[in-house]
Specification:
By secondary structure, the protein is α+β, with helices and mostly antiparallel strands. It contains two helices and nine strands, in the order E-E-H-E-E-E-E-E-E-E-H. An eight-stranded mixed barrel has the order 1-2-3-4-8-9-6-5. A hairpin with a 4-residue loop joins strand 1 and strand 2. It is elongated and about 80 Å long.
């Protein structure tokens, strides 16, 4: 099944990382809905075996599949099985690194076959990301001609998150409402405190 034929939220491939005991189905798409079910293959990044395949996952929420990502070390193996049964092997190139939310060039789709795993570095509201890069390890299975996708070296994937602007606006508004509620409750408690 060509990667382009897999709909958003559907299983794109299986990922196994023995060093941290991870075995997860990776969904196509890395928006809030897809990431609730596990890791997500970032739209605009390369399909498995065709460049830089970027996978995002939570480290603190929704079963935190990437909670142990920082434990990986250079040389650790990662295995990816595609829907048509091809198994791609990767080897972590170095210990995980923390990058600022603006340093998204690690998601560039083109170049040698590799896997880039990304999660937040400090909880759900952190702008820093933990990034693990794993290079193709040894001879990889051939990608069938009918499944190859044309990748653009100029495609800018934007931010790490696939959240639409509206989602961020709702989040900020919600936090503002909570803050106002806390302040109002404190003030009311102070004003109407029972006397001695």
């Amino acid at each position: 099944v060509a990667a382009a034929m897999v709909g958003a939220g559907r299983a794109a491939f299986l990922m196994l990382i023995p060093a941290i005991g991870l075995e997860q189905v990776v969904a196509r798409g890395a928006g809030p809905v897809e990431l609730r079910g596990g890791p997500g293959w970032r739209a605009g990044s390369a399909p498995v075996g065709q460049g830089n395949t970027v996978v995002l996952g939570h480290s603190t929420l929704w079963s935190y599949p990437f909670g142990d990502l920082e434990s990986l070390r250079g040389g650790d193996r990662i295995y990816v099985r595609t829907r048509d049964g091809r198994v791609h092997r990767y080897k972590v190139t170095a210990k995980p690194r923390v990058v600022s939310g603006e340093r998204t060039r690690v998601m560039k789709a083109t170049g040698p076959a590799r896997l880039t795993l990304v999660t937040s570095a400090g909880g759900p509201f952190s702008t820093e990301r933990v990034v693990v890069v794993a290079a193709a390890d040894g001879r990889q299975p051939e990608v069938p001609e009918d499944q190859k996708e044309r990748l653009s070296s100029t495609t800018d994937l934007g931010s790490f998150d696939e959240r639409p602007l509206g989602g961020a606006l709702i989040l900020v508004t919600g936090l503002g409402v909570v803050a106002v509620g806390i302040l109002a409750a404190r003030e009311l408690g102070r004003r109407y405190r029972p006397g001695p």
